[in-house]
């Protein structure tokens, strides 16, 4: 498909997102099975159901433009999910693997948000009211939370995978790890107890 107009780019982005979502649908059950923490596994299962809704929403938007969902495979998502598969196979302590799975899922989620944000912007520029009005709802499920802030932390108890400052867990500052753990717990994704295990896995004896 030759990209000659902004509409062409919009449709290309939608197809790329559709490919990404279909790949995520295949990967999430494996991640849920690999997760040791029950709440983490439940989060992956919840995301699995929401991702199926994302794909159906994208298919509906494409159909409204007389377009099929066929398009090139999303190589960006393929690479991110490959990293997740490698984490599943790692010879790691259970709690450490869970932490690695969260990091892998966070990368996937941010990719989704970036793609949906671009697609929504294209729809608005094209004055495609139906496409633009659908996109914020998809973003809200994918983790945006509201129309004007891609990447905002979810409301407490939302159970999402997008949590800022997770990188601190892989750092060298125990205080930073504790701060990250408290942030995780405050946003209702994992229990404080589980996050304590992650922190202790990084800093044995602390």
Question: Could you please describe the fold and organization of this structure?
Answer:
The protein has 206 residues and is mostly helical. It has seven helices and no strands. The termini are far apart. The relative contact order is 0.13.
Strand content: under 5%
The separation of the N and C termini measures 56 Å
What is the general shape? elongated
User: Element order, helices and strands?
Assistant: HHHHHHH
Mean pLDDT: 74
Number of strands: 0
The description of the largest β-sheet is:
none
Residue share in helix: 55-70%
Structural class: mainly alpha
Radius of gyration: 18 Å
Number of helices: 7
* pLDDT < 50 stretches: 140-174, 187-195, 197-206
Show the helix and strand layout.
Layout lengths: L5 H29 L3 H27 L10 H15 L4 H32 L3 H14 L31 H13 L5 H11 L4
Helix pairs in contact: 1-2, 1-3, 1-4, 2-5, 3-4, 4-5, 4-7, 6-7
How would you concisely characterize the structure shown here?
68% of the residues lie in helices and 0% in strands.
